[in-house]
Fold this protein.
Amino acid sequence: MKNIVVTGGLGFIGSNLVEYLVNKNYFVIIIDNLSYSSNIDNLRTIPKNKYKIYCQDIQNRNKNLYILKKYHPVAIFNLAAETHVDRSIENPYKFIKSNILGVFGVLESLKKYINNKNNKIKLIHVSTDEVYGDIKKNKFSKEKDPYLPSSPYAASKAASDLLIQSYIRTYNLPCIITNCCNNYGPKQFPEKLIPKIIINLLDNKKIPIYGNGKQEREWIHVEDHCSALYKIFQIGQVGEQINIGSGEVRNNLKLTKVLINNFNEIHHIPTKSNISFVKDRPGHDKRYALNSNKLKKKYKWKKKYDLQSGLYATVKWNLAND
Ligand code: NAD
């Protein structure tokens, strides 16, 4: 059985990825600093002998290096990060530490590990479509587009992507950068848009929508993100940058209305919640959408979920796991 390291493996996407990799017969080593969005319960469906958790910060290079030397993993999937845009506006410092200095910690340990021996390993870094910043209606960001991040979160992810590019070029580190659109699915922390809406519907509370709700986002099911990451690990070439998108773009208001309909259908007791438009987030981008032709054509990747059925399943999951 081969080993893989997943940083941030107790978070939303990380825990789904751990399960995906265990199902592909890997032993997974999780590095997670137990930040507020981590949840050990996210691993409850995975046999305990298929993973090992190290509660530590990815900024700690020596501890990262210890794990690399002990397990000789074939890959590191780097997902550890502070991830909530609103929190990054309130307190950017945590984002600078985890998302920039954290990636620096991973890169430095990887550099040392590779220098010592000729170890075969790939670092798959999980980044976001937000690095490209606000784009015009009907436009799609390509891998070569300039980075124009708007929030401290997006800027910290952009900075770490650039740091990785410099380590690829200068030190020949075997890294691949992936930029994904918004994820949805089981185990997402309740502060994020979709689980928050479902919880408010359940509690008959108002559903706050920023501004006029016309901000457009592309949505991918987390399992489809995992399958794309796995394919990129298997056949991706070192130094590549790859967008991961589903092609399903909706504005926040439309998405909310779909969730309300799904909720009323599944829950039987119709909600008394109403949409409430609230003051817009500072610097709020109007549109993110990715051109994912490279992933589809070169990697022959296909999504499993369409947004309609994926959202329906997600509402069901959240209600069953409330
Ligand atoms: P999440 O907040 O649910 O999970 C993040 C995990 O990382 C948590 O378990 C947390 O404890 C851990 N962590 C944070 N800082 C750490 C550090 N310094 N050292 C060790 N562990 C640390 O986030 P998520 O939504 O699962 O996102 C995972 C990754 O995917 C992030 O890098 C994010 O930028 C990226 N991403 C997310 C989305 C999305 O829609 N959720 C879209 C594109 C990219």
